[in-house]
Specification:
Layout: E1 5-8, H1 27-38, E2 47-48, H2 55-58, H3 64-75, H4 97-116, E3 122-125, H5 146-156, E4 162-166, H6 173-178, E5 185-192, E6 216-221, H7 227-245, E7 249-253, H8 271-288, E8 293-296, H9 307-318, H10 331-341, H11 369-381
Helix pairs in contact: 1-9, 4-5, 7-8, 7-11, 8-9
Length: about 400
């Protein structure tokens, strides 16, 4: 049973804006908030302000040199600093970049704090999930790594074990890098194969550093994987791994760029499959962590047709009031999309798919790329968690 929940958000977070033409448009966040409002989600999900992370807090994950580099780029965005990934082809500099990036990190830490200190069971920061940022370098549209900063805060404040599950289509490389040799943190990432998609990492053989073997689990998925295959992989790996690790709290990243309409990747999930994953993670938090769950956003570049619906489903699940997929998209929201963007918005909160899957226990098909990938991840990672990898 769900308890109280909250969203950490204010409109200032939409200043995380790389400018016209960049795929990561703040419009996706604005439209999500408007849709969630009109669906009545905030009747059950109080919204609290997002604090700005201090330099000291940022330096628990990022180097002091890097924080100063971000400040310089923020003050003078016309000067690139490619040694730190700033002003690169994907992570542009913009005025105020340090301040809003620090506020996104602060929002994820506040979400983690409110759950860890017992104020709520679940908390979310949908503007967060900037999982590619490295300790000394920006990458993949990500300046500060807010999930990593939040996880480090949890560790510094008494959490003995933290599990991080990343369902973005891109490998959660930055979070993995930060905690790769820390046995207190289990990172699990399901993503498109590194042979076909940025950042080119996340093979099943990446299992953690010498002091933390088995603390990283990667499940690279073939291009074209849809709801049934994705959910088959998820349920073959994630529940067993999380239950074996027994974390104190669950932190999740919910990039929705695994959708078939996303322009930057090659999976074929639907909003219905994404919703099923969110429900499964919510249930897992209750089964293993007494409900302690921190959810962030992430990627997602079909900014009108996909992101607002997917993340509204996520927020409703965080609130403990899931939305029926057959729910009509509010007419006022659809009208706003028509007026602002000249687009016909989706009619319902579903893509009309039933996200069924065949459970791994039914057998393994060695001729299927998907099954070979699942088996490799289980074979390599499960023994470190005391699990039998056979089905």
């Amino acid at each position: 049973m769900s308890g109280e929940a909250r969203l950490v958000y204010d409109d200032a977070l939409t200043r995380y804006d790389f400018g016209r033409g960049h795929p990561m448009s703040p419009i996706r966040v604005q439209l999500t908030i408007r849709l969630a409002e009109q669906l009545g989600i905030f009747d059950h999900l109080p919204v609290v302000p997002a604090p700005v992370a201090s330099d000291e807090l940022l330096r628990t994950v990022h180097t002091a040199e890097y924080v100063e580099a971000v400040k310089r780029a923020s003050a003078d965005p016309d000067v690139p600093d490619l040694d730190h990934g700033l002003g690169s082809d994907d992570t542009y500099n913009f005025a105020g970049m340090h301040e809003v990036s620090a506020q996104i990190a602060g929002a994820s830490v506040e979400a983690a704090r409110s759950v860890w200190e017992g104020e709520v069971l679940h908390a979310a920061n949908i503007v967060g999930g900037l999982h590619h940022a490295m300790p000394n370098r920006a990458s993949g549209f990500c300046v500060y790594n807010d999930p990593a900063v939040a996880i480090q805060w949890l560790l510094d404040n008494g959490a003995e074990r933290v599990a991080y599950v990343d369902v973005d289509v891109h490998h959660g490389d930055g979070v993995q890098e930060v905690f790769y040799n820390d046995p207190r943190v289990l990172t699990v990432s399901l993503h498109e194969s590194p042979t076909t998609l940025f950042p080119g990492t996340g093979s099943s053989g990446e299992i953690g550093g010498p002091d933390a073997r088995g603390s990283a689990i990667n499940v690279p998925l073939p291009p074209g994987t849809g709801d049934s295959g994705w959910l088959r992989a998820f349920h073959a790996i994630v529940p067993d791994a999380i239950k074996a690790f027994q974390p104190s709290i669950l932190v999740t990243q919910h990039g929705c760029d695994s959708h078939v309409e996303d322009p930057l990747a090659h999976l074929t999930k639907t909003v219905d499959g994404q919703r099923a994953a969110y429900l499964a993670l919510h249930d897992l938090a209750h089964q293993v962590c007494d409900g302690k769950w921190v959810a962030t956003g992430g990627g997602g570049y079909a900014i009108i047709d996909v992101v607002p619906r997917a993340w509204s489903h996520l927020l409703a699940i965080v609130a403990g009031k899931p939305i029926d997929p057959q729910t009509d998209v509010p007419a006022a929201w659809r009208e706003e999309v028509q007026i602002r963007f000249g687009r016909v918005a989706p009619m319902r909160m579903t893509d009309g798919r039933d996200p069924e899957y065949v459970d791994w226990s039914t057998g393994y098909n060695p001729d299927a790329w998907l099954d070979r990938s699942i088996k490799a991840s289980r074979d390599i990672s499960f023994p470190f968690l005391g699990l039998d990898p056979t089905y």
